[in-house]
Amino acid sequence: MAPPIQSSVRRLTSEQRIAQADEEMALLAQVARKDMRAFEALYRNYHRRLARFLERITRHAHLIEEILDDTMVAVWLQAQTYDRSCRVSTWIFSIAYNKAMKAIRSAGRFATLPDVDIAAAHDGPEAESIARETRVQMQDLLALLPPEQSAVVELTYFYGYSYAEIAQIVDCPVGTVKTRMFHARRKLGYMLARRPEQ
Amino acid sequence: MRATRPQDPQHTESFELLPWYATGTLEPAEHMRVEQHLQGCIACRNELRTIRTMETEMTSAPQSDPAIDAGWSRMKRRLHTLESGRARVPTLRAQVARWLASGLWIRGALLAQTALMLALASYVFLADPAPKYYHTLGASAQPATGRSTVIVAFDNAVAEGKIRSVLRRAEARIIDGPNREGVYTLEVPRERRQELLQELRRRDMLAKPEPVP
To answer: How many interface pairs between A and B have CB atoms less than 8 angstroms apart?
Structure first.
């Protein structure tokens, strides 16, 4: 018999999500008409969310601020192009993800656990030493993943997006989202299993 | 962590979808299939527990203070700069629309037509009909009054500064070149032409053989 499924996640109910989506759609429509107060509300709604997302996938404080600002400027300038085919948050995260990946590619200086054969990755000294850290946190483990994988993990667990929405955000087929999640789970699961009890 | 029954498509699908099952974002039909599978699959139930651990840790981790107020002030400044720049340079469409709406375009068109006619008349009656041909160094002798030209090629071993010094003393200047063969045309006061050539030869500054003037 399966154990009872209990969620400890502070996530919105589907009704709350719908209400929030409607509210954000209305805000974005005002932003498209160059309403600065609406834009401020949207900015304040998204600042923390985007900052965390960008922190997880870029891991550089100076890049976070820059990409976050560029994302919100793009929202201000392109609000009238939003076609309501997805949630406003999906649209905004998609802009942020694209800008982050561009910045990461141009910076080209992110050391991550190579996305190779999982057995080889498990034997890697970096993964092993981090896994054995007694005070290691989930975000430290996430930092070992390639940004494409940590984005999928973050968007799933923290932001509560469906895999179809994540495919829209990162602009790839749903199968790729599932594959990235699968590889991330294998790595994270391995390291979590070897982490000493705290 | 491994899918224990890879041959079972139901298991493969459920195992893959577990993260979104855990977050409650699957479509109802998918959710139901995964739930049914979980009843009889220990591997997936164990995996779901691991997923719950990840999820809980991620959502309970403290968030850094992103300094929203400072960020918003920065954003306002940037938008202000952006918008004032856009205001100063209206789009082409806006400029055309404004011009058409102003009713001045007929007068403008008449003015432009008149200007065009005047320009054409000037070109036909006043322009110098002599075409400007390309000229070679050997045929370029059009010096200013009282001056003559000298065709030379400098020895590559001679420093540019020394050449410049000789030319300056003879009040000469380069008016053309170098061409592909490294030949220059110099302009020099007529009475100093021989003096310049002698000085260049005396100092071995000229390439050999000297170009024919």
So the answer is: 116
